[in-house]
Amino acid sequence: MNYENYSDRDIVNAVIAGEEPVIDWFFHRKCSSLFNYIISSIFRGNIDREELVNELYLFLADRNWYKLRQFDYRSRLTTWISVVAVRFFLKKRRQLSENSAPECLYNHEQMHSNHVVPADCRMDVMNAVGMLSDERYRRVIVALDIQDRSPESVAEELNITVDNLYNLHRRARLKLRSVMRRKEDYYG
Fold first, then answer.
1. What is the C-alpha separation between 127 and 135, in angstroms, rounded?
2. How many helices (H) does the chain have, and how many strands (E)?
């Protein structure tokens, strides 16, 4: 279906009603140039597009679409969503930079006794984690997989929802597997 003919009111109503095809079209096609701008200008290319889409979606959907319901149709929806998204992600970037104090990636004291891993394997994993270009991926892998911290505490530290943390963790682990495969190819 061609959603380009939808009015702003139709789009807002469809998104609030949970119409998946409209939601997908709106966030992945209609807002595509907005996300390109945010990725390049606000995060300097160091963030995953799907993470941005998820974050904005969850922000707008919070409290029964409270923020989206504030749209008053005095401007175009794309203009309004651009202002909201840029402000949201600028604030998010500030929070991320405030929370990213330099820290040791691996703390022996925080390993639980039931997670006994041979030293050479730990070194391989930590070397691979260090090769991840995305700092948030590194932090999530270390916090959840090495330090065995609770998802709630990690999500709070990163200022994201637990649902988004699970998505971020999944992407981080996929990237880590990719890095480790490249490393095996190099040594193989």
1. 14
2. 9, 0
* Tokens of residue 62, six digits: 């919070």
Question: Model confidence over 26-80: pLDDT tens digits?
Answer: 999 999 999 988 888 888 777 888 888 989 999 999 999 999 999 999 999 999 9
pLDDT in tens, 7-16: 999 999 999 9
Output the DSSP codes for 84-145: HHHHHHHHHHHHHHHH-----S--GGGS-TT----HHHHHHHHHHHHT-S-HHHHHHHIIII
CA distance 121 to 158: 27
| CA 37 – CA 16 distance, rounded (Å) | 25
Distance separating alpha carbons of residues 184 and 118, to the nearest angstrom: 18
